[in-house]
Predict the 3D structure of the following.
Amino acid sequence: MKRITTGAALAAGALAATALAFAPSAAAVTPTTATVTASCGIFGGGAATLTATQSGTSATLTLTSSAITTPLALSANSIASTLTMSNSTGASRVFSGTVNPAMAAGSPVTVGPLPGTVASGDSLDFYGGSLKMVIFGVTVTCTSSAAQSPGPFVF
């Protein structure tokens, strides 16, 4: 009986090791940050930083900018944001949500992390896309006239 138990334990260990060897590797977006120049109407315009994270087919994007400011005080999670990223390998990808910190009037804008879905090989750039923020029923749209630097997010 002892041999059977030992044999079963060895077989289970071998199966577990094999499963780990064939497990898919964690996906990682590169680069994790990029700089864009955005024009956002009444919010202003200038340099902004996009930060990306990835876990499998789920990803998040956050936009922060000291050049783009809020004209009014805003409470946390009060901006409905839709960030559309152009994708050189297929359909555009959309990241949306109502995630933002509280901001005083004149404060730098931060939205996100906004969740979305990506596919392996997606190459996403803010240029050709947009950020739409709905604040107190008013839609503010940000666009860019140049590609992000150092390059697109590759998932």
The longest helix spans residues 2-22. DSSP finds one helix and nine strands in the chain. Helices lie at 2-22.
